[in-house]
Design goal:
- With 478 residues, this protein is mostly helical.
- It has 17 helices and four strands.
């Protein structure tokens, strides 16, 4: 009986996820606010249904009361997040809030299935990230002068990365962060420095796009990337590089800078391949993971096995073998999701991430302040490129870089940094709404000053009809 419930549940979850994903894009086509509200409310209902079905299956498989308690705590948490954002920030983007909750819930479902103790830690970090994320929009809206802290952003960022490069220990072939003794938690500074890096580049390029300033900004940005390369944190280095290149091109609209950056990046990749054995192993595993099975290709090979085994509809929760994938709860969680929930569900997950990026771009294009515009663009690029690196690595589309899937993979630093990013984006969305309100108020004031009120506009045609040609010169004299 349990196996029948599991088998039926996977199809139901796929259908609900498909409807949710469709809503992520259909909401853009809705013109009235009332229609948008109904679509967004339907998303909330769909998310809670998927969440309930998944944890019901998990409970049927493990028969432990802690699963039930954990489920209800999560339901309360997600309800509070949705309500608090609506109450505290009426102008907030509800689509971003819904997608954030959906991605968090999917991650918690999969991590609870893999390792319950990790799911508890992940939930604690999600709560902490939400608390920070709820405060960030206020800071973005109230604090003035953040555009002038250019060198402060760069200084804190480079010093943090240097501390990791000098004092951190190697983990998985790279220096990533510092472990806090006694609680088993590792802080990864590069996750937070990404945000400071975006602020630095936005601050610098919004002030001046002359050649001299671009040369200085590029040198400091290259310093960030170089320190990460020395730490062999190649995934983060690649994210920093691409984010800078995109922001530089948008700020200057000069294709020469983009082409020069791509050329320099290609040359650096070749040099890095010959200098670091770590890169050679990953490239060999990418080219043919099965021939390099015992020397670095094991992870990618197991990932491909899992994705292929799951097929379009998946094996169902607890019906697959995601435990055989190394670090399935973090770097390779997309493979675990594909195996048990299917490729259709996994593709919908990608589209939900894409809808977040579309919203980020929408906010960036609507903002009039160049500094805020570049921040929205930079954070959006950082988010979607990390999604690309994660999924591209586990599917053998590109060499594995060891980065996590934002809001889905296990990782405290990753969860906190991404939720801060989402908080900043929400703050920029509110700033955009404030700008539109101010423009409307200015227009109304101008109309009042010039005497063109709505009532006068309605009466004016009648006056023109009564005026004769003989009266026109007299009126002009007066």
């Amino acid at each position: 009986m349990v196996n029948i419930v599991v088998e039926l549940s996977k199809y139901l979850i796929i259908i609900l996820m498909g409807i949710y994903t469709f809503s992520c894009f259909s909401v853009f086509a809705k013109e009235s606010e009332e229609e948008k509200k109904w679509v967004l409310l339907r998303q909330n209902i769909l998310m809670f249904l998927i969440h309930f079905i998944a944890y019901f299956v998990i409970y049927l498989k493990v028969h432990e009361k802690k699963i039930v308690v954990f489920y209800f705590v999560q339901v309360l948490f997600f309800m509070l997040v949705i309500i608090l954002y609506r109450v505290l920030y009426p102008k907030v983007s509800r689509l971003i809030v819904n997608n954030m909750c959906m991605l968090l819930s999917i991650g918690l479902i999969m991590i609870a299935r893999l390792e319950f103790s990790m799911a508890i830690k992940q939930f604690v970090f999600a709560v902490a990230g939400t608390c920070v994320g709820l405060v960030v929009p206020i800071l973005i809206r109230k604090i003035k002068g953040v555009q002038n802290w250019t060198m402060l952003y760069a200084g804190i960022g480079i010093v943090s990365l240097l501390l990791v490069a000098v004092f951190a220990r190697y983990s998985g072939g790279a220096k990533l962060g510092f472990a806090i003794p006694g609680i088993g938690i590792t802080i990864q500074p590069s996750e937070f420095v990404k945000i400071l890096f975006v602020f630095y580049v936005a601050s610098s390029l919004s002030k001046d796009t002359g050649f001299k300033n671009i040369a200085i900004t590029t040198a400091i940005a290259a310093g960030h990337v170089l320190v990460l390369v020395l730490s062999t944190d190649l995934g983060a280095a690649l994210i920093f590089f691409v984010v800078y290149l995109v922001m530089l091109y948008v700020a200057t609209r000069n294709p020469f800078y983009a082409l020069a950056g791509i050329g320099a990046g290609g040359l650096a990749s070749v040099v890095g391949y010959h200098l670091f054995a770590h890169i050679k192993i990953r490239v060999a595993a990418w080219r043919d993971p099965f021939s390099a099975y015992d020397s670095g290709g094991y992870q990618v090979a197991q990932s491909l096995f899992a994705i292929g085994t799951g097929g379009w509809f998946g094996m169902g929760l607890y019906q697959g073998l995601p435990d055989s994938i190394p670090v399935a709860e973090s770097d390779f969680i997309f493979s675990a999701i594909s195996e048990e929930l299917g490729l259709i569900f996994a593709l919908c997950l990608i589209l939900v991430c894409v809808s977040c990026y579309v919203m980020f771009l929408n906010i960036a294009m609507a903002l009039r302040n160049q500094f805020y515009k570049l921040i929205a663009l930079g954070l959006g690029t950082c988010y979607i490129f990390q999604v690309f690196l994660t999924i591209g690595g586990v599917t053998k589309f590109i060499p594995s870089t060891g980065v996590t899937l934002p809001l889905v993979s296990y990782g405290g630093s990753s969860i906190l940094s991404v939720m801060i990013m989402f908080g900043i984006i929400q703050g920029l969305y509110i700033v955009r709404e404030d700008e539109e309100e101010n423009i409307e108020k200015r227009r109304e004031r101008q109309l009042r000053r010039s005497g063109y009120s709505k009532k006068k506009n309605q009466k004016r045609p009648q006056r023109r009809e009564k005026t004769t040609f003989e009266e026109i010169p007299k009126q002009r004299i007066r």
